[in-house]
Amino acid sequence: MTTRARFLIAAGVLAAARPAGAQTTTPLRLALIPGDIAAQPYYAIDQGFFQKAGIDATITPITGGPAIASAVASNAVDIGYSNVVSLAVGHDRGLPFAMIAPANLHTTQVVTAGILTVLKAGPIRSAKDLNGKTIAVNALNNISDVAVRAWVDANGGDEHSLKFTEMPFPLMPEGVRTGRVDAASIDASNEQILARPDGELRRLANVFDAVGSRFVVSVWFTTTSWLEKNPALAKAFVAVMAQSATWANANHTASGAILAKYVNKKPEDIAAVTRVPYAARLTPDLVQPSIDVAVKYLGIKPFRAAEMISPLAR
Question: DSSP code of 155?
Fold first, then answer.
């Protein structure tokens, strides 16, 4: 039978045709933040990984994590993408979410987010200099602001004095330049700005390093009730994400061309920034650092990562 992937975009639906075959496919509805951080499903569709696994994937791009969580909780989609800190907060509130596969990975060698940026000619040279200052992050009460708190705390500043404001990544450099904010936690999409010799901005710190030297920033998650009803489909999805992660990590040029198509960017623009690495397997040691920092700075009850990781992920 003929299968296809359907992508729900703001203005309508883009259909991607799949070749005809004898295998019956199972529908799977995914929600993600469109970008390098959550691009494994894009690659899985274009490389035929979903089709070979018998999955007919529908991808709904959603720009905000809370909206994705709501979509998963209400069964509007089956599986969603979220940072671990937000899921840990949800777990503390009793939400029945379970992590099933890893997404973007942070390591000290490959930094793609949490790049704390300040004015090159400005007075901020240390964590102490940030006391009482306003810092832009893409979202509050998630990995973005707690990582800044952790770095300031670990380097002699007063994290309690910090003020945070939400700001989209593309607007952050201008926010710092104009003084609207004193610093911003940018991602790799803006890192070229820091490399300009005549630029006005500079990197103060890689704040994700204060969370851990190697951890998954975000994961693929669903509800425990969906997992109980769809164990085989969930297991197939986990296998496809591992396959897609391994392929993407080894094929930056090809994956960049695919990503450019789905996020409406030029391949050369994607190639010019540090590409996101993905973890291929979800293990407690990769998840625990984000939980621990949420416990310390967001006041949730301590718990072990294994409580939220489905056995199907292992």
Answer: T
CATH number at residue 53: 3.40.190.10
Which of 192, 210, 228 lies at the terminal end of a domain, its last residue?
Answer: 210
Residues of the domain holding 127: 115-210
Q: Tokens 């949800």 correspond to what residue? A: 90
68 falls in which pLDDT band (50, 70, 90)?
A: very high
* 279 in the same domain as 263: yes
Contact 84, 186 (CB under 8 A): no
pLDDT of residue 66: 83
What would the pLDDT profile of 141-194 be if each residue is shown by its tens digit?
Answer: 999 999 999 999 999 999 999 999 999 999 999 999 999 999 999 999 888 888
> Do 260 and 296 share a domain, yes or no?
yes
> 158 vs 128, 148, 164, 243, 276, CA distance in Å?
7, 11, 14, 43, 31
Structure pTM?
0.89
Q: Count of alpha carbons within 13 Å of 255, Cβ hemisphere only?
A: 24
Q: Which amino acid is at 112?
A: T
Decide the pairing of beta strands 12-17 and 163-166.
unpaired
Question: Which residue, among 215, 235, 234, has the nearest Cα to 85 in the 3D structure?
Answer: 215
Asked which of 144, 178, 210 is the last residue of a domain, the reply is 210
**142 shares a domain with 205:** yes
